Amino acid sequence: MGPITLAFLLAALAWALVAAAHVRQKYPAWFWYLTGYPITALRVVRTWRKVAVLNDLAVSPRPARGLIGDLIVKGEALRLVAPRISFPKATRTGLSLIVRLHPGQTPTPFIQAADALAHAWRVHAVRVTSPERGLVHLLATAGDPLQKPGLASARVPLLSALLGICESGGAWVMNLRTVPHWLIVGATQSGKSTLLARIVTQLAPQPVALVGIDCKGGMELGLFDVRLSALATSRKEAVAVLDALVARMKLRMKACRDHGVRSIWDLPEKLRPVPIVTLVDELAELYLSDGTREGKAEAERCSVLLLRIAQLGAALGLHLVVAGQRMGSDLGPGVTALRAQLSGRICHRVNDPGTAEMTLGDLNKDAVAVAQSITPDEKGVAVCTGPDGGWDRARSHLTTVEEAHKAAIAHAHLTPELLDVHKALYDLGVKRDAGQ
Ligand SMILES: Nc1ncnc2c1ncn2[C@@H]1O[C@H](COP(=O)(O)OP(=O)(O)OP(=O)(O)O)[C@@H](O)[C@H]1O
C-alpha cells in the first residue's frame, strides 16, 4: 500500500470518527439505531439461552423426578429449554422484546433477573412488565437517559403538571384528575423543593387555587406567595387552613348532593367550584409533637384534617401534594392511613431504607430497590408511580427558584380568592396583602 493510499485511508478513518462523534452528540437516537442497537440485539439473541439457564428462566420439558422400579429418583434436568423470545425491537433509547413463558412460569423470576440481564447485555437497565398473561415484556435502556435529560414535551390537561422525563423515554406527568393525591419524599438536597417549584410553575397558569403549608416558616413555598391563595407557615396556621378547607369540602358535598351528582366535575360549568391543590412542605413538622398537650392536640387535628381531605377530596376538587424528608409510622398512626390515600408516590434519594419502603413498598418491592440505588449525584432523580399502577425512574426538569418565582408573579392575577381560608388565617393574626 503506497503512502498516498495510506494517508487517504487514515484521513477517511479520521473523518468517519469525527462524523460518528457528531452524529452521537447531535442525533443520539440515530447513533443508537445505527451502531448500538444492532450490536446489542445480536448480543441478546446470542446470549439468551445461556442467560436464561444461569438465571433459572429456562425449564426442562421433563419432570425433575422419575420412577426407576420402586424408587422415585430426583435430579436436575440436563437439557433446559429457554422460553422463546421475539427478535429485539429498537426503541429510541434501547430495545424491547417479548418473552413467551413456558406453562407454569410466572414473571417473578424475570423481575429478579433484571439486573443480571442488564449486565449480560451491557445496557443501563432492564425493566420487566407483563402486559398479558403468558407474556413478559423486557425493556432495555442503553444508557441512563436521565444523565442528561432533554425536556420532554406533552400536552398537559387541567390539573396536570409536566414534571420531567421518564427513563422509558416518555414525559413525566403528574395528573391530579387521574391520581388525586401525591406523596413526595427525599433526603435533603435530593430535589424535593425543585420538584415543588416545578409543580407550582406548571399549575400557576391554570384556573386552580394553590394553598401552601410550609412549616419551615414559609421559606420554600413563601417564594410563590403571590400565586398562593393562602399560605400557612406554622402548624397552628396549618390547622386553621385545613379546617377551612374541610368546611369548604362539606359545602361542595352539599352542592353535589343538591344537584344529584357525584363529583364537582359533573356540576354545570358555571356552578363548578375552582379546584384547590394544597401543597405541604415537610410533612413531619405537622405530625411531630413537642410533648405539650396543646402540641399533641394540634398534631392530631392536622392528621385528622389531612386524612379527611385525602379520603373525600378527590371528587370535590381538593387535592394534596405532600412532601417530606422522612415517612415513617413513628410520626404517628395517622401517617400510615394518610399514605394509603396518597396513591401517587415520588421517592427521591432517601437517607433511611424505611422511608423508601414506606413510600413504595406497598406498591412494588423492585421500585424500593431502585429508589435505594439513587446516588447523591443524581439530583432530581426519583422513582415514581405511573397512571397504570406501574412505576418508572424519572428526573424532574430543573426549575430554578427564579423561574418559579417569575411564573408565580406572571400568573398572580389568576389567584382565586378563598375568603374563608383568609379569614381563618386573619383570625390568628396573619395578614396577607394581595400581590405581596
Ligand atoms: N432535576 C434536577 N436536575 C438537576 N439538578 C437538580 C434537579 N433537582 C434539583 N437539583 C439540584 O439539587 C440541589 C438540591 O435541590 P433541592 O433544593 O430541590 O433539594 P431538596 O430535597 O429540597 O433539599 P432541602 O430539603 O435541603 O431543601 C439544587 O442545587 C438543585 O439545583
From TrEMBL:
Domain FtsK: 169-357
Superkingdom classification of source: Bacteria
GO molecular function list: ATP binding; DNA binding
Entry keyword set: ATP-binding, Cell cycle, Cell division, Nucleotide-binding
Transmembrane intervals: none
InterPro entries: FtsK/SpoIIIE/SftA, FtsK_dom, P-loop_NTPase
Pfam families for the chain: FtsK_SpoIIIE
Gene3D superfamilies: P-loop containing nucleotide triphosphate hydrolases
GO biological process terms, semicolon-separated: cell division
Annotated residues for binding of ATP: G186, A187, T188, Q189, S190, G191, K192, S193
PROSITE patterns, sorted: FTSK
Name listed for the protein in its UniProt record: Cell division protein FtsK
Lineage start: Bacteria, Bacillati, Actinomycetota, Actinomycetes, Kitasatosporales
